[in-house]
Design a protein that fits this description.
Radius of gyration: 44 Å
Low-confidence stretches: 125-160, 206-262
Helix content: 40-55%
Mean pLDDT: 72
Distance between the termini: 51 Å
Shape: elongated
Number of helices: 12
Oligomer: single chain
Structural class: mainly alpha
Order of helices and strands: HEHEEEHEHHHHHHHHH
Strand order of the largest sheet: 1-2-3
Number of domains: 2
Largest sheet: 3 strands, antiparallel
């Protein structure tokens, strides 16, 4: 039937169909429903209208009702949260209660209910909404217009709950890898120190020869008396100063083993640079630049390393590459994680 030819009264629900009545009905629509055999297609009503019908005696405690507090499941009215205390009972323990009570005096169950008619109570956000208000005086609530709370800004697919949890898991995995790298670096440093100590303990003979070498330096003094007296002042400074200044007569084998080659980075210096680059308290961009420079430097050092140190240099190079990958992942995921944890941030 065309809307211009509607009857004045509906033959099923006996409701008036004029524009003013339809507008008033639309204003009274809400998420609360009362099961009625006579009016099976009756629309939902607001909470204030439901309480008003309870006060008029049109709804009894044995009627079947559903609404936001029942998650839209049909429930006997005396067990509906937010409505049972208007019948003088608590919905949880059925203890005596009054419409003015906010909580049950026996079991401390709450009688508060949301007045937002757009909330159906179908999800966790609707059940735990922050728009709970007092339901003791429905007349006062109907006189004062209720302002619906602002809806939280909807997040896109990139910042949904599933994506946020995935970002958190990836960040936690990156941090675990960083902690493992720190432990490996510490173990590597301890191993290097242990090797140095063992080398010092296993080479006492070169150290003794180096300490006894100055005793052999005055040997040229036996040649000095054979020279003329006037030439002695010219010859004496040379054998005394040359061993102390140049030190080329008795080269020490330890110096070649301990001191790194000139212009090359030692393993201890490389470890210190790596520990500084993986320090999470510093700027990520600075750390990325330092790790990149260290990676380039390690390429030549690994190739030129001795067979004894080659494995240690290769391990450090692998740690640097892994740290660069973790830092790149952290830089890529940090903006998305901040938007997921702070929806109002730009």
């Amino acid at each position: 039937m065309h809307k211009d030819h509607l009857p004045e009264v509906c033959e099923h629900c006996h409701g008036r169909l004029d524009p003013e009545s339809r507008e008033q009905t639309r204003a009274d629509l809400g998420p609360w429903f009362v099961r009625s055999v006579d009016r099976p297609f009756s629309p939902g009503m607001r909470y204030e209208t439901l309480v008003r019908q309870v006060g008029l005696g049109r709804i009894q405690s044995t009627h079947v009702v559903r609404g936001p507090t029942t998650s839209q499941f049909w429930t006997v009215a005396r067990k509906v949260p937010g409505l049972s205390h208007h019948f003088g009972l608590c919905h949880a323990c059925q203890a005596p209660a009054s419409p003015e009570d906010e909580v049950c005096q026996a079991c401390n169950a709450s009688f508060r209910v949301t007045l937002d008619r757009d909330r159906m109570g179908l999800g966790s956000d609707d059940v735990q909404a922050s728009a709970f208000m007092e339901s003791s005086s429905p007349e006062a609530g109907s006189d004062q217009p209720h302002v619906a709370p602002p809806a939280s800004p909807s997040l896109g697919e990139a910042s949904g709950p599933g994506t946020s949890n995935q970002l958190r898991r990836e960040l936690l995995a990156a941090r675990r890898r960083q902690n493992a790298l720190h432990w490996l670096v510490g173990a590597l440093v301890l191993g290097v120190l242990a090797l140095l100590v063992l080398q010092e303990l296993k080479s006492p003979v070169p150290v003794a020869s180096a300490s006894s070498s100055p005793l052999l330096e005055p040997a040229p003094s036996s040649v000095i008396p054979a020279t003329p007296v006037d030439a002695v002042p010219k010859i004496n400074p040379e054998p005394i100063d040359s061993p102390a200044s140049t030190g080329t007569e008795d080269p020490s084998p330890i110096g070649d083993a301990v001191l790194p080659e000139e212009g090359k980075m030692s393993l201890e210096e490389a470890l210190l640079l790596y520990q500084r680059a993986v320090d999470t308290s510093r700027s990520p961009l600075t750390r990325q630049a330092e790790l990149g420079g260290l990676e380039v430097e390690l390429v030549s050092l690994v190739d030129a390393a001795s067979p004894e140190r080659s494995a240690q240099w290769q391990t450090l190079s692998s740690l640097v590459r892994q740290a660069i990958m973790d830092l790149q992942a952290e830089l890529r995921l940090a903006p998305e994680a901040s938007r997921a944890t702070s929806p109002n941030s730009p």
